[in-house]
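Shipment paperwork, digital attachment
Item: protein structure file
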Amino acid sequence: MSYEDAFAAVPGVTVEWAHYCGSYQGRLVAKLTIEGVDGPRYVLDYYGSCSGCDAYEAEMPWNPTPEHLANFGRPYVEAALTLDEAINELLPKPGDWYDSDEREALDHILNDYPERRALLAATPAGTA
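Attachment content:
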């Protein structure tokens, strides 16, 4: 069980893919199709390596029920971003720290949109 299981447990949600950027902790990006919503939506969040720094590990029992998964996943689904919002969130901002996990998440989203891959040419490789 994982974050994508929780998103998929929300009625009307299909998880197209989920990607964990980093090793034991980092950035999570997931592409969702939500019934009744035009276009894909993206979940951007962080994950950790233990129940002290990861929301899923902290809140999920060993064998979560579908209802428990859906209740956990619902706020993420409701806050999911449009493609343009997700790209804007992941593009580096002048003067801000730019983590390689951000670059990896953006790269993963842009794999579905080859016409927008030129955006990566303008981004640093990452400063972490």
